[in-house]
Amino acid sequence: MIVIMKHHATTQEIAAVVQHIEALGFKAHLSQGEERSIIGVIGDERPVEPEHFELLAGVERAVRILHPFKLASRDFHPEDSIVKINGISIGTSKVIVMAGPCSVESREQVMETAAAVKQAGGHILRGGAFKPRTSPYAFQGLGLKGLELLREAREEFDLPIITEVMSPQEVTLVAQYADILQIGARNMQNFALLHAIGEIQKPVMLKRGMMSTVEELLMAAEYVLSHGNSRVMLCERGIRTFETSTRNTFDINAIPVLKSLTHLPVIADPSHGTGKWELVTPIARAAVAAGADGVIVEVHCDPEHAMSDGAQSLKPDKFAAMMSSIRRVAEAVDRTV
Amino acid sequence: MIVIMKHHATTQEIAAVVQHIEALGFKAHLSQGEERSIIGVIGDERPVEPEHFELLAGVERAVRILHPFKLASRDFHPEDSIVKINGISIGTSKVIVMAGPCSVESREQVMETAAAVKQAGGHILRGGAFKPRTSPYAFQGLGLKGLELLREAREEFDLPIITEVMSPQEVTLVAQYADILQIGARNMQNFALLHAIGEIQKPVMLKRGMMSTVEELLMAAEYVLSHGNSRVMLCERGIRTFETSTRNTFDINAIPVLKSLTHLPVIADPSHGTGKWELVTPIARAAVAAGADGVIVEVHCDPEHAMSDGAQSLKPDKFAAMMSSIRRVAEAVDRTV
Amino acid sequence: MIVIMKHHATTQEIAAVVQHIEALGFKAHLSQGEERSIIGVIGDERPVEPEHFELLAGVERAVRILHPFKLASRDFHPEDSIVKINGISIGTSKVIVMAGPCSVESREQVMETAAAVKQAGGHILRGGAFKPRTSPYAFQGLGLKGLELLREAREEFDLPIITEVMSPQEVTLVAQYADILQIGARNMQNFALLHAIGEIQKPVMLKRGMMSTVEELLMAAEYVLSHGNSRVMLCERGIRTFETSTRNTFDINAIPVLKSLTHLPVIADPSHGTGKWELVTPIARAAVAAGADGVIVEVHCDPEHAMSDGAQSLKPDKFAAMMSSIRRVAEAVDRTV
Amino acid sequence: MIVIMKHHATTQEIAAVVQHIEALGFKAHLSQGEERSIIGVIGDERPVEPEHFELLAGVERAVRILHPFKLASRDFHPEDSIVKINGISIGTSKVIVMAGPCSVESREQVMETAAAVKQAGGHILRGGAFKPRTSPYAFQGLGLKGLELLREAREEFDLPIITEVMSPQEVTLVAQYADILQIGARNMQNFALLHAIGEIQKPVMLKRGMMSTVEELLMAAEYVLSHGNSRVMLCERGIRTFETSTRNTFDINAIPVLKSLTHLPVIADPSHGTGKWELVTPIARAAVAAGADGVIVEVHCDPEHAMSDGAQSLKPDKFAAMMSSIRRVAEAVDRTV
Lengths: 337, 337, 337, 337
Prior knowledge:
Four copies of one chain form a homotetramer. With 337 residues, chain A is α/β, with parallel strands linked by helices. Chain A is built from eleven helices and 14 strands. Chain A folds into two domains: 62 residues, Phospho-2-dehydro-3-deoxyheptonate aldolase, domain 1 (Alpha-Beta Plaits); 259 residues, Alpha-Beta Barrel (TIM Barrel), CATH 3.20.20.
């Protein structure tokens, strides 16, 4: 941490800051410039926030030097982490595709979609049983019944399952059915849920909050990692900006940025990242070109009658076309699908 | 809902949209302009999302006509709702002040702060026992012990208590100690928690998510209201923008906007809304001038040693000065404090 | 400037950065921590951007220590600057009100509005002759004819005039008619225009760009100041955020932040800051409560037929009510109107 | 346009809105729903803004039906526009690469960089002679001398030139040297400049403002087109968001969105879109994968000593590697480079 003093800070104020730093167990390193004095805080600053120093008299601001995350950092774990699920490895040169309906709606719907996903070469089946919905009047998911349908599809088509868990008390239940637990964007900083997920041994895919920074995403991963669960994947799914022509702005920069900051696999969600099915394939291609380790997309056999997210769902034929399209791009960057 | 067709939409496409609208139980109303046809969807559109129509062939976009919330709307409840807590009424011409430490840290700290709050004329004591923290390495709150200390201060100083609840399974416990339950900004769309809060009879203050629109805040309130709890207050606490000179951007516009859209009381949080104690008093004054029904601020007797949020906490003397400052502004807008 | 090295930076990389710093004429100050080395750049860093160091091998990032502005800074000019215009002083305890139509449309319109502004106690008449419009198909202003009408109103009602100038070649012309030149939000970083404005001796009001930071606003002021024009006022007029319930988000925090960073007067524009006339008065009150030195609002006698910005214009009676409303708030913060 | 009335709007209010619509020369079409009445405005609504109706008594809001742009719209010009410059066609299946230094600094620098661009297969040479800089203390470009150096490089290496023009009075001068005029992001809504550019016959590349929506970018293009210059290209160069790990957020979604809304060619600028040279190649690949018609990147032989934007400049060897990398991706989407 660097503490930057105000232009007119007095020597007493500087001395008080030095004393405060030392009382916290750090060493202080004073450097007096022509216009400003700055004080380095030497030691592991991670448990302390810059704001902690900003209220001391004469301080203008404080700036972190270290990233606040450690277990998630590539600094301490230079090689890529690989998450293995029933023989599928995520985080290698093979790009993994997760696909399926937004919500599980019926036995027929799940089976038909799973068949289409399998046939087109998808690797993992996605589907929501517990659904976070903005409106209390919207369809909230089939719950346990939905989990059972996903299990049935899993066995019939030999596809691992990823599904969302929304609250700490459901973690144990959902973990009995799912191969990967998904933490949704709105729950990325639901710390009680992150804590609960950290204590089980099940792979988890953590979706970036729609207005969360890359650093906050990595801190959410740090929560899970620090409670003992090391099988964490990150998912870029679009952020909220001033632009209204798409539902979200897919942050393509975040893919190479995350790959350089962390060893965890990075998945792209072009369905939520755009909100429109016509944009899903070009953005899926872009994500693979930028270095994503996997793609998660919504597929529905009858999106006109989907109970949620129809507008961003691909029909099976479009999904098959997307698969061959991203396969070519993957090869152009020396990967496979 | 209005469905806007593409420029070159065919008559078959238009007919299919009309048929789809009618199959959902709505009436369709077609209006053919020179460049675009538009189709009105007549009926209560609330359970349907505009995206639902946007995937039909020939559709450009769909626009809501009705607000998606109903119980929270002033349209159906024109007079102000007043939330009563132990003889204190929130939502009247009297501006209510909630104050106290970010985190409960010790018996001495709570008692000393509560005394200062009471003496300066504060009405409600705030304090966190369960703390949502961005870092797993930061202080996470005293938990149950913190609740007990709050209860002690409550009885000694005759101050109702507001404290945060972070997960559905803690609702019953926290409700035994608190007079008002706070839902934090990061949990504004934690629907499992909103559902649980909706089923108890305890006032709740819902903080706007830093990435949430005014409409989404009202939809979160709708969740609580629709599950049976009518004593809901809203809190503007700053949103995330591109500006970095303050921790958040306090959305002063949201105060009169909320007062016109909803009958629920609106509280302002200038501590989180700015992140810097020097800015708390001017923004508290601004919030009262703009029509806030209450103010919630962080007060700490020794902010240099606070375990969280010291930088935005007022010392007791600054808090007393803020109280007299907002009292004068309240009078200038025909209110009291 | 502080240069923060990567975790695994080699001693050669560190030496090369030190050498690079010294070659630029600065002193380098190395501090080796446990996880990261950091190098202080001692000297006036203003002409150098942090990015300049970020491409050197082994560098993670660079952080400014000094504000990039100097003439605009309160550090070097602690007392408030007062801008005097025909006997009116801006930047004192008296809050100045500028009011008038968005666009000058006709002689009758200007005269009628000017009379209303004068009668209600407004101090300065605003009105646009050259109009920046998002659409090439919208009314673009009366140009020179508009300037002449403003001069006529100026003389008849003894009200100084503020009007916008949009391009460098119009500066001389507009300066012959206006008492204050306005730089619009879209031109805040039109550096050719800032340069031209800096070379004349005429007060200027610089509006914050809708997505410009406080620091960028101060850098725009620095352009004008550094070219020799010291009579600069700043105007907060709302920023662009994700929120759509208002046209812009008025950044109330920016008012006390600017007052602490700079000696220049700060004006608030609640008309553009909200985009809705119903919100103008509460936000004007809030701005005064937060410390604004002045308010600029749009007033129109017949907003239903205004050629631009009708939705955010106050009618004369509403304007008069706003004046008495902000007068009471000004008194509550020991100022006058 | 659709005018949505308030819940409690009276029949008199509705009648007044209808009358107002008709007085503007439109037809009004009333539709009375259970909760809200809505009124369609029939006719070419482009010159009118929704705000125009929002101040009428009883109106809640107004929503555009038509896009406000027409000449730029694919609706009226379904086939792709191709911009031809000295035998190079932009907007075909061949992806065009523009490359060169941020600023022209010296004869040697331009010649050396131009040689590297040519050798690696770049098609157009970029370089700034007039530089928009945030700080008045930073290097402002060589001006006319820079243009002459660009012309020299143009002739020596047979590379067309793209360079920025910053103010209306420089348009004629810059047009004598440049093959393509660039309008920078900060000038995207400098309407005086757009007007001047519209009146000459020279291709122009319009960069999206960092705070501008896709619709506003198309409206800026409409300005140029409506004044008679039809050779317009658009450039996505990153937008400003809350994320701070990159200088800007490259809006990858904007590429397919623009390709569907307009017939104009779309160029991607991954240098400004990321601000870091390590990210330029992955984002260039992503842009090509998403459908960009061209890429513009900063190349510098000695970025450590560049006078601007060194951090985002590629060295010649990295540029050559980028060229072969995007060539492979282009082929994967059935294009060439």
